[in-house]
Design a protein that fits this description.
Elements: H1 9-17, E1 22-29, H2 35-42, E2 54-58, E3 67-74, H3 77-96
Antiparallel strand pairs: 1-3, 2-3
Length: about 100
Amino acid sequence: NPRVNGASYPLAVRRRLAPRAAFVSGTVQTGAPRFADVQATLGSLLFDPERGSGVVPYATGGLGQGRCAVVALAGSRLRAAELYGAARARLEATWAAA
């Protein structure tokens, strides 16, 4: 299948941004109404090309339904899992209080 879909998007992101990185991905619950809010909430956790690690939110069309997909890229699977967990915690906690 030459198309990139929800199941293969994390692999496509890794291939394009950090081919040697490990990754963890999933969908998080959030009340963030706009991508700009997701971006502001994640702040320093967002992918940085110079670092070669961070999180990339995607499938932001689901924000209206209270969800957003995130892929975390890092030098190890453990670090990617830590980044994913931190992103999930920020997105869930920040918008639960709103």
